[in-house]
Amino acid sequence: MTDFMRWLYANYITPQLKKADITGYEQSLSLMDMTLDPELHREYLRAVEFYSGNAFLLGLYTGAGLASQSSQASFGSTQPSI
After folding, report:
1. For 28-51, how does the pLDDT look when each residue is reduced to its tens digit (9 = 90+)?
2. Could you tell me the residue range of the domain that residue 49 belongs to?
């Protein structure tokens, strides 16, 4: 993970996760916080950091791909619609 992604996780993604609606996930998240020993809890948080950062990047890549597809469609195609 790059320094930028670590900064992004700490300053953008983590605050978003903290204020996210956890309806339906309360028990699972509570168990992860209460039952893991300190070392495993640190490893769990590192895994969350990894997956959150990669999910963010996937969203950027997917969004960029969708934007390029929609811009091509909005300018019209030379192919007739079926």
Report:
1. 999 998 999 999 999 999 999 999
2. 3-16+27-66
CA of 78: how far to CAs of 22, 65, 67, 73, 75, in Å? 47, 21, 19, 10, 10
Phi and psi, residue 79, nearest 5°:
-85, 140
In a domain, 21, yes or no: no
DSSP one-letter string for the chain? --HHHHHHIIIIIHHHHHTS--TTTHHHHHHHHHHS-HHHHHHHHHHHHHHHHHHHHHHHHHHHHHHHHHHHHHT--SSPP-
In a domain, 71, yes or no: no
